[in-house]
Amino acid sequence: MSNRESGGENCVFLEVRGAIDEHHGHSHEHGHTHEHMDSPGTFLSRELPPSRKDFHKRAFTVGIGGPVGSGKTALVLALSKYMREKHNLCIVTNDIFTREDWEFLVKNKALPEDRIRAVETGGCPHAAIREDYSLNLQIVKDLTQEYKPEIIFLESGGDNLAANFSRDLADYIIYVIDVAGGDKIPRKGGPGITESDLLVINKVDLASAVGADLKVIRLLKFWFKEYRLYDH
């Protein structure tokens, strides 16, 4: 693992070699209007969580977003297995018309089944974590009252690079992309990439197979204060 200093502050950029992989498929056809954006956003201009918050009403929530198949659910599973012995955790998943991610986490025993809740958004998952996050917020509050968790992992449904969490819903945001779409994906930016607290670029060991240039991808390190290569 190596650290390198560059621009920005308080954000970590990770490359992951074969550490996180999805083992289940998705479908995310949808149609609705999106919040208008004038630019792909920047880290320094990102929205910050409120400075004062009562975590007895809503536990500290880590939002995990990213496109379909990037490795979000597998990351939630890995984090849960790593942290559950020392920390009180709960999980909320989002899918459009199924409970597939919930089923994956239950099957793989991420946490006891009653601590994992599923949201079926019935439309674009982007809206369910930003424009109208009321259902997710209520479930997070319910879990807080029932189990008093230290941390809740809130996984969004797979969506595009414009998707990002409302700071009223997520206190810390992780965004996961992978090299399967080529080196153009991270260069396109978008709030998920530019305004997350932690950007994970997954499956970099597959770069040569899909014709992605890691040198291009690694130019992103200059967006962040801290750059780490994690080789699992």
From TrEMBL:
Alphabetical UniProt keywords: Chaperone, GTP-binding, Nickel insertion, Nucleotide-binding
Q: Which residues form the CobW/HypB/UreG nucleotide-binding domain?
A: 61-216
Entry superkingdom? Eukaryota
Disordered: where is this region? 24-48
Q: Does the keyword Nucleotide-binding apply?
A: yes
State whether keyword Transmembrane applies: no
Biological process (GO) annotations held by this record are:
urea catabolic process
Extract the Pfam families matched here: cobW
Question: What segments bear the compositional bias annotation Basic and acidic residues?
Answer: 24-38
Q: Which GO terms describe its molecular function?
A: GTP binding; GTPase activity; nickel cation binding
- SUPFAM superfamilies referenced in this protein's UniProt entry, alphabetically: P-loop containing nucleoside triphosphate hydrolases
Family of the protein in this entry: Belongs to the SIMIBI class G3E GTPase family. UreG subfamily.
* PANTHER family xrefs: UREASE ACCESSORY PROTEIN G
List the protein's name: Putative urease accessory protein ureG-like
